[in-house]
Every structure is written in structure tokens, then in C-alpha cells.
Write a structure and sequence with these properties.
By secondary structure, the chain is α+β, with helices and mostly antiparallel strands. The longest helix has 17 residues.
Length: 116
Amino acid sequence: KGPPGAPTGRPLAVTVDPGHGRPGVLTRSADGWQAGPRWLFATGERAAIWELVRKGFLLAVEETPEDTTSPILHSNRFALVDGEGRLRATYLAFDEDALDRVLADLARVEAESGKR
């Protein structure tokens, strides 16, 4: 935690395809997206990641049929999780106002955590 008023949350991207999304690939993605040092990119065991996505974030992730170009079908939503690990909201990644909404919700979550 930082000083009062400093953001406490950190963006986290979790690959749903750990066979492809190895640390070096994630580092190149972070560099390409100019994600900055606060943004974390994570990988792990596929079963654990998929359980987190499905049960923790309440989002979809499935294997696709063999005749498709992408091996994994996953949600186009992202999730806001608070410091206690609670899912607070999900957002459609391509909504025009998604970034504004997530920033407002993040500010609200951070304000709530400062009251404890």
C-alpha cells in the first residue's frame, strides 16, 4: 500500500492459454501494449486459471472445436476485483465507456478500502 490517496490497485492480465502465454510472450505483450511497470501479467496452470476465470470472475472460457483458428474461446469482458478478492464488476472490453466506468468504479473501491 502507498501513501493516503495513492492508487492501491494494480491491473492484472491473466492468460487463459498458458501453453502459449508463457512469461516471455507476456513480457512482449506488455511491452507492445506499453502497459507500464504497475501492470502485472500472469500465467500458471491451465486448470487453476480456468477455475479462477469461471468461478472467481464468472466469465466464460472453453476449448474450441479443432476446426477453428483459435484454440480457446474466452469472454470479451474484464473484471474488477477488490483487495479482498471479491468480484465487483465486469465490463465489455469494446464498450466505448468501459474505461470511464472502470476508472469510476475503481475510485469507489479504493475509497471504500480507505475507510476500513
